[in-house]
């Protein structure tokens, strides 16, 4: 009977790009559905359901937050019970159920119940997202090995092109579905979304013979709890005593089994969070025990280092919250801002406000190949790093771009307000301000460039720097910061409304010509700047994985 902590990998000639491409197409199709809904949700809530701008923004942020927090539960089920493949498959059917409920909510349901039915569909989708989001990326990344520098470089390219497939799907959705929703009907647009999810499930099933699958390893939180309990029991002991499992020969049988079956590495001891090292100390009770090692009293170094990996990511996670709060403006205030500007081409064609989000996608589609094929090879010659720059450096560049972008947004909105005042449109919110929507191009382009650095860097960091048996959890942690960022954005909106109203002039009113959205953007920019400083402080002290060598050496501190 296999040990519950061991992970068995199908070692047949499976995996690689031949398998990953199926999963990438599935993700592209699923993102087509998600962004086909999310990109124009502000318009639906305000125009069709009659909600105010601030209320709609809060509802969108709350839904997005729940959608990105449910993956924690989905990841736990995948890593401990179901496995990633089964979790992706089952959650896809739940996601499909929510998608089918969308067109029904605007056609079959009575008008007085329409809003409740619509939000019920949204949150059923959120449950489905909980299983799909954290597992589909890690399942695709599992198709590639890590045994050599070449394989690691391939995996780095995978993360770039994985995000590229997401952006391609979302860009097609923004360009096509927005026009269907606004020019044909919302029910038709929602029906197309549901059909795309059916196609995604079929493609996923076709690729089954090619996939490299993994068996769940049991609850990953048990190993974490064991370290904390063992360290607490021995908190009075000195760390100068002999440690259990400090070299390869002393590693536990289950850890060596895990290494041999998963190509995982035993981790070497590091000097951070030294209190946890007490869990590895062999005391009198451990020496006199004739029984097998008690895992709640004595843990090997590699297990302790797994817990340290998680703890190291916590301050990085915190420093990324404001970046994710900034991203929510793309689906809320950016859209309302564009709806009040001149979007006409020629005499008869008007660009839907949500269509501007395709600029972000086009930017990413252009920048990622340049980054992967030009930037990385040239920088690699200088740094000798397989990714050109580290994940943390990549994220830092993106955070700076996001901060600068919110400043640009503030300047553009200030100009729009001046134009509205100059033309006497302060109290005419339904009249288009005679200012070209092309002024919005820089902020959408900068969002795309920032995403190439930060989002892809986050995906890579939270995959590589998690224990191999907890990588679905790592993906969920990465996604949870997006969810928390959405809730933080809602909190900022509420705080700004309350504080500004108490001073006599509310900043975020329905009439944007009388609002001060520019001030709000400057608040976001300031908070981003503070967050960037905190990130730089923590990233400069971050310690990458240190891997034990089988010859009782340490391969060195490195980014896996």
Describe the protein.
The chain folds into three domains: 13-217, MFS general substrate transporter like domains (Growth Hormone, Chain: A); 220-250 and 267-299, no CATH class; 311-546, Growth Hormone, Chain: A, CATH 1.20.1250. 66% of the residues lie in helices and 3% in strands. It has helices at residues 17-38, 41-48, 53-69, 71-82, 84-107, 114-141, 149-184, 186-206, 220-233, 253-262, 284-288, 301-319, 321-327, 333-339, 358-383, 391-422, 441-464, 471-502, 517-539; strands at residues 341-342, 344-345, 349-350, 433-436, 546-548, 554-557. The strands form three sheets. Strands 1-4 form a two-stranded parallel ribbon. It has a two-stranded antiparallel sheet with strand order 2-3. A hairpin with a 3-residue loop joins β2 and β3. It is globular, with a radius of gyration of 25 Å. Belongs to the major facilitator superfamily. Proton-dependent oligopeptide transporter (POT/PTR) (TC 2.A.17) family. It is found in: Membrane. Its main location: membrane.
Q: What is the number of helical segments per DSSP (H or I, 4+ residues)?
A: 19
Strand order of the largest sheet: 1-4
CATH class of the largest domain: Mainly Alpha
CATH homologous group name of the largest domain: MFS general substrate transporter like domains
Q: Major sheet, described briefly? A: 2 strands, parallel
Range of helix content: 55-70%
Estimated structural class = mainly alpha
Query: What is the CA–CA distance across the termini?
Result: 32 Å
Quote the average pLDDT. 81
**In CATH terms, what is the fold-level topology of the largest domain?**
Growth Hormone, Chain: A
Q: What's the CATH architecture of the largest domain?
A: Up-down Bundle
Overall geometric form = globular
**Rg, alpha carbons:** 25 Å
Low-confidence segments: 1-12, 247-251, 256-263, 552-560
Strand tally: 6
Number of domains: 3
As a percent range, the share of strand residues is under 5%
Keywords: Membrane, Phosphoprotein, Transmembrane, Transmembrane helix
Protein name: Protein NRT1/ PTR FAMILY 5.4
Pfam families: PTR2 (PF00854)
GO molecular function: dipeptide transmembrane transporter activity; tripeptide transmembrane transporter activity
């Amino acid at each position: 009977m296999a040990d519950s902590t061991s992970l068995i990998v199908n070692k047949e000639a499976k995996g690689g790009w031949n398998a990953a491409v199926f999963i990438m197409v599935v993700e592209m199709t699923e993102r087509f559905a998600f962004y086909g809904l999310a990109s124009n949700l502000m318009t639906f809530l305000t125009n069709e359901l009659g909600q105010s701008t601030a209320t709609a923004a809060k509802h969108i942020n709350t839904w997005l937050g729940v959608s990105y927090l449910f993956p924690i539960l989905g990841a736990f089920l995948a890593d401990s019970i179901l496995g990633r493949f089964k979790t992706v498959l089952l959650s896809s059917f739940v996601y499909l159920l929510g998608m089918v409920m969308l067109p029904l909510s605007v056609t079959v349901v009575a008008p007085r119940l329409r809003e409740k039915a619509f939000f019920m569909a949204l949150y059923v989708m959120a449950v489905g997202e909980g299983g799909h989001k954290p597992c589909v990326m890690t399942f695709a990344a599992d198709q590639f090995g890590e045994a050599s520098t070449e394989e690691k470089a391939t995996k780095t390219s995978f993360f770039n092109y994985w995000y590229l497939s997401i952006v391609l799907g979302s860009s097609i959705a923004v360009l096509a579905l927005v026009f269907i929703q606004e020019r044909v009907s919302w029910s038709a647009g929602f029906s197309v979304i549901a059909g795309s999810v059916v196609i995604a499930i079929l493609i996923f099933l076709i690729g089954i013979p090619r996939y490299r699958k993994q068996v769940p390893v049991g609850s990953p939180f048990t190993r974490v709890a064991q370290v904390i309990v063992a360290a607490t029991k021995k908190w009075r002991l000195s760390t100068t005593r002999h440690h259990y499992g400090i070299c390869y020969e002393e590693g536990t049988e289950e850890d060596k089994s895990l290494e041999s079956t998963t190509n995982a590495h035993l981790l070497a001891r590091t000097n951070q969070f030294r209190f946890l090292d007490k869990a590895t100390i062999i005391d009198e009770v451990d020496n006199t025990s004739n029984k097998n090692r008690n895992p709640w009293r004595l843990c090997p170094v590699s297990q302790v280092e797994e817990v340290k990996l998680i703890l190291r990511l916590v301050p990085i996670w915190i420093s990324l919250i404001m970046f994710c709060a900034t991203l929510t403006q793309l689906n809320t205030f950016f859209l309302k801002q564009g709806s009040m500007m001149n979007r006409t081409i020629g005499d008869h064609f008007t660009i839907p406000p949500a269509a501007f989000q395709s600029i972000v996608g086009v930017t990413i589609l252009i920048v990622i190949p340049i980054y992967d094929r030009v930037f990385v090879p040239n920088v690699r010659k200088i740094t000798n790093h397989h990714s050109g720059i580290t994940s943390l450096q990549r994220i830092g560049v993106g955070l700076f771009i996001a901060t600068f972008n919110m400043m640009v947004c503030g300047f553009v909105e200030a100009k729009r307000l001046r134009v509205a005042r100059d033309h006497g449109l302060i109290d005419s919110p339904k009249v288009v301000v005679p200012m070209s929507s092309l002024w919005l191009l820089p902020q959408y382009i900068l969002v795309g460039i920032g995403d190439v650095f930060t989002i892809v860097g986050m995906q890579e960091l939270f995959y590589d720097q998690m224990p191999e048996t907890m990588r679905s959890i790592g993906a969920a942690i990465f996604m949870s910061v997006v969810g928390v960022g959405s809730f933080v954005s809602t909190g900022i909106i509420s705080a700004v409304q309350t504080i500004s109203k108490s001073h006599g002039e509310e900043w975020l009113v329905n009439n944007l010509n009388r609002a001060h959205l520019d001030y709000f953007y400057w608040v976001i920019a300031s908070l981003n700047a503070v967050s960037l400083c905190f990130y730089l402080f923590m990233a400069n002290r971050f310690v990458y994985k240190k891997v034990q060598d089988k010859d009782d050496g340490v391969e060195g501190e490195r980014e896996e």
